[in-house]
Amino acid sequence: MTNQNDVVLEALSLAVAARVPVLLWGPPGAGKSSAVEDMCRSIDATYEVVIASIREPSDFSGLPVITDNGVEFAPPRWAKRLCDAGSGVLFLDEISTAPPAVQAALLRVVLERVVGDLTLPDELAIVAAANPPDQAADGWDLSAPLANRFCHLDWHVDPMTVATGLVAGFPTPFIPTLPKEWENQIPIAAGLVGGFLSVRQSLAIQPPIERALAGRAWPSPRTWEMLSRLLAAAFAIEASMETRRNLVIGCVGDGAGLEFLTWLQELDLPNPEAALMDPDSVDFPERGDRLYAALSAVAGAVASDPTPDRWLAGWRVLEKAASQSPDIGAIAARVLAQIRPDGVSAPPEASIFLPVLEAAGLLE
User: Virtual CA dihedral for 265, 270, 274, 280, nearest 10 degrees?
Assistant: First the structure.
């Protein structure tokens, strides 16, 4: 039987590799910090721990200093060390016991990776840990804006793992390595998300009314975009379904997440590579949301390797599948238009999408 935390660690490692901020929730003393530290050591990553609960807002927004150029906001040493390293992991511990002013100062750090006047490296990953408010010392509910910047994962305590680890030592977390071209999967994952939201439009953004729930995962354009990146990473390494489930619910919450997972299970989409090889051999779904997802997957496949032949084949697929519903194929057509190989003219199959693209303002 798979340890629940093995699945959580795989989800955590994918978030770190995809540079999506991730937050571990669990009781005090459950080993969250140790797991993150072991993970960083296993991949030889620079590791900076900042305990948010004992920090001041200026530790994240920068200390104001008067200079000849006016007021500058000096970053702390930990931020300079990460910047000098060029990559690594910033671990924000005890984030749920940070007062509201500190949480507000963290907003820009987590989303934009900016500390004071210093911009942290793009290769930096952000991991946080929190105790549920009822289990934390003077805990606070996480503010909705800060919570919506994370993928939330629940950390569990398995008694047998603890018992075995105390005697034989705790195993080093296994961290999968993403293939070099994993980001080519992002358009395909985004197509799946877009197909779902085309029929469940109310879930595009749905902030919870209750403050406690707003401090966990909930759907917004930001978290759906985060999910697209995480699903792409999961597809690239063929992560388990349980890991994908953790990532989906961790980004958009239980309600929207379970709906999306159910919708994914009901899909029966054609292989985009088979469609590009021979459009006439593939049966495309008639239902709008599924067709949207299928065409987005085809466009994403072309984007991953946009040779002239594949680009032209992509238009043939769109014309065959969406000739009766050009509005459904408009987004996929826009993707193809944006990746046109140099020196290649649009084929006749593209003409049916021009009115829809122009009406939607998708053409310059």
Answer: 170
- Number of continuous H segments (helices) and E segments (strands) in the chain: 17, 9
Cα gap 301→318, rounded to integer Å:
13
The pTM of this model reads 0.84
Token output for 79: 């931020």
Quick one: fold of 22-149? Rossmann fold (3.40.50)
Query: What are the start and end residues of each CATH 3.40.50.300 domain in the chain?
Result: 22-149
Give the pLDDT confidence of 120-145 residue by residue, as tens digits: 999 999 999 998 877 665 667 788 99
Whole-number Å distance between alpha carbons of 300 and 184: 7
d(CA 155, CA 169): 19
Q: Looking at residue 298, what DSSP letter applies?
A: H
Pairing of strands 124-130, 22-25: parallel
Which tokens belong to 89? 């992991």
Distances (CA, A) of 62 to 12, 113, 166: 29, 13, 41
The Cα angle at residue 9 between residues 17 and 102, in degrees rounded to 5: 75
Residue at 93: amino acid letter: D
